[in-house]
């Protein structure tokens, strides 16, 4: 009886933690959710180490998405076939498994231990199930201050696992939606860039430059993601500009230039149809204001200084740099070095000096080899 009460208390404790995690969820990377689930389970069941396995979307392999313990860093990202090892068997069967003495067990797959150097003595493996679907399994290794795990430990792990599975499910769904949203935005930007052979890849480059600047400015990861989206969509209003003006090889007349300028207003208008509106505010503002300049000489509103949103000021610098350094039908395009000099020349008058400094720091850091910088930083942002 005492055991059951104890169990209930621990489940309540976990629920509280999960509730707190949920509140933070919108700001949490999925990796952090994986890590939180694992750490809570390890602490509550009292294990020396633990591993969270997730069934890959294709359903053929299982992968370690979080690990805790001595050799955790060597275990993360280990993959096995879905029917390999105990983790896989539990995922296939949906049944928890207690192995008091692991080394004597026929299903033990040595691969993980060999690569990590960790000696597994005793192990609990529980499935993470949501609505009859097994998402993964959680392995707890070596009972603390004892030789082997007992049946009570398994009951506790199973109870905790059902809560954890829900948190895992929610995070995976959220992550999938985010990825889908971002890939749609990317597609939209590509469609836009494809209209003009001279601007191919413009939106993606401006988005990359913007995030690198933001990174140097010390912006938070969530903000950087928002900025990336806003930058990808900054020129979306060009959809509303006729081809013969957009792709005109020679100088534009004053009227033609006026109509090109409208892409800022058209872009903001198009984006204001996207829901939820609150989440789109920065994206809309960036599309509208990325041609504003500090001294008020920009368009469409003639905003000055801090009247221009930070995102728009960053994208304005990234956009100008890409426009200057990309070949057009009428010009070869400047070198990155000359582009940077031009930004520096217009510092404080047209562009925020902090932003220009951040961008020139990026350029000097990679010695003007932006392709290399991109390759080095791609993974970091997981965009
Ligand atoms: Fe633009």
From TrEMBL:
Residues 177-375 form the HD-GYP domain. It comes from the Bacteria. It holds the Pfam family GAF_2. Residues 199-324 form the HD domain. Gene3D superfamilies: 3.30.450.40, Hypothetical protein af1432. Keywords: Coiled coil. This is HD domain-containing phosphohydrolase. Residues 4-31 form a coiled coil.
């Amino acid at each position: 009886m005492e055991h059951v009460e104890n169990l209930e208390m621990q489940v309540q404790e976990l629920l509280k933690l999960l509730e707190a995690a949920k509140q933070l969820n919108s700001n949490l990377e999925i990796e952090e959710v994986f890590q939180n689930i694992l750490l809570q389970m390890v602490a509550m069941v009292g294990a020396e180490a633990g591993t969270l396995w997730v069934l890959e979307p294709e359903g053929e392999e299982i992968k370690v998405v979080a690990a805790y313990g001595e050799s955790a860093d060597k275990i993360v990202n280990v993959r096995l076939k879905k029917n390999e090892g105990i983790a896989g068997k539990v995922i296939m069967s949906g049944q928890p498994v207690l192995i008091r003495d692991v080394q004597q067990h026929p299903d033990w797959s040595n691969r993980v231990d060999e690569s990590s150097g960790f000696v597994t003595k005793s192990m609990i493996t529980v499935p993470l199930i949501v609505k009859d679907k097994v998402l993964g399994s959680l392995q707890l290794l070596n009972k603390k201050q004892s030789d082997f795990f007992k049946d009570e430990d398994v009951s506790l792990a199973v109870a905790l696992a059902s809560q954890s599975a829900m948190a895992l499910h929610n995070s995976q769904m959220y992550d999938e939606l985010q990825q889908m949203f971002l890939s749609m935005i990317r597609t939209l930007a590509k469609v836009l860039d494809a209209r003009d052979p001279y601007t191919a890849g413009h939106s993606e480059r401006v988005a990359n430059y913007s995030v690198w600047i933001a990174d140097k400015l010390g912006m938070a990861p969530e903000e950087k993601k928002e900025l990336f989206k806003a930058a990808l969509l900054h020129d979306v209003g060009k959809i509303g500009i006729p081809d013969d003006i957009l792709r005109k090889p020679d100088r534009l007349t004053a009227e033609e230039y006026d109509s090109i300028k409208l892409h800022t207003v058209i872009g903001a208008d198009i984006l204001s149809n996207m829901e939820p509106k609150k989440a789109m505010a920065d994206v809309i503002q960036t599309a509208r204001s990325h041609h504003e300049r500090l001294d008020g000489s920009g368009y469409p509103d003639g905003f000055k200084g801090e009247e221009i949103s930070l995102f728009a000021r960053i994208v304005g610098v990234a956009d100008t740099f890409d426009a200057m350094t990309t070949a057009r039908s009428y010009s070869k395009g400047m070198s990155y070095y000359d582009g940077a000099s031009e930004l520096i020349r217009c510092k404080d008058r047209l562009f925020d000096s902090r932003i220009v400094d951040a961008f020139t720091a990026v350029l000097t850091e990679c010695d003007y080899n932006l392709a290399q910088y991109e390759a080095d930083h791609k993974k970091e942002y997981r965009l």
